[in-house]
Amino acid sequence: MVQAGLGDVKVVEFAGAVAVMAVAGAVGAYVLFGGILPPLVAAGFAAAYPVSAYRARRRTRMAAAAEAWPRLLEELRLRTGSLGRSIPQALFEVGRRAPAEWRPVFAAAEREWLLTTDFPRTIRLLKDGLADPTVDAVCETLVVAHEIGGSDLDSKLADLVEERTLDLQGRKDAASRQAGVRFARRFVLLVPLGMAVAGLTIGTGRSAYETAGGQLAVAVGLLAVMACWAWSGRLMRLPEEPRVFR
Q: How far, in Å, CA of 96 to CA of 107, rounded?
């Protein structure tokens, strides 16, 4: 939830959104098909929408983080190297130029540092607030360099910049190749819905949906749509980088 920018959303609130969507799906299916079975299946399908929206929001924010980090790491190299800043000072200066949604987390970490001068504790606060794999790697590198010193911080950061840049480019290439497939995937929802609405105007219309055979056919059709949607989403899912030193 933190990675999706929804860290303040309570579990009860999220469950409430799921329940509202389930009711809306059941009502919509009842209006179209009547009966009991199709509304129940549609309620389960609609209840998955908040989860899907959360995942999409999380993917968007993680992609934005991946795009921002190479620039931030280069700036961190410059400040710890050429400008001679201390590691904490350089980190917080970079944080002021980070994406807007990250700045409150960097500001909270800076306040912690000013109050305690405990860098590992400050870093833990930053890692918990951003919940990003790159943050884990960068922060642990900075903690080690801050505590034991050494002259190889610049080379470590350079390696991170190169690795992040290659990963970002690979993900962009994969996303561009999937653009047409993602567009076509939406028809998995739109075409069956259009056919169901058109069925109301053909023959006996809604009364045909309310028969035992019609109820079973609609339920099977909805389950098939759900299965195709979930299966195609799993096929297109890019691998996620695991977090480290949590």
A: 8
Count of C-beta atoms within a 10 Å radius of residue 59: 16
CB of 129 closer than 8 Å to CB of 108: yes
Q: How many CB atoms lie within 10 A of CB 164?
A: 23
DSSP at 7: T
Q: What share of the chain is helix, strand, coil (3-state, %, to 5)?
A: 80, 0, 20
In this structure, how many other beta carbons lie within 10 angstroms of the beta carbon of residue 23? Answer: 14
d(CA 90, CA 68) in angstroms, rounded, equals 17
The single residue listed with the structure tokens 């924010």 is 61
pLDDT-based confidence at residue 151 (cuts at 50, 70, 90): low
Whether pTM exceeds 0.90: no
Provide the terminal-to-terminal Cα distance of the chain, rounded to the nearest Å.
Answer: 16
Q: Percent of the chain scored above 70 by pLDDT?
A: 94
Check the CA dihedral 197-203-207-213 and report its sign. Answer: negative
Write out pLDDT tens, residues 38-63.
Answer: 888 889 888 888 888 888 877 777 77
Contact by Cβ (8 Å): 43, 225? no
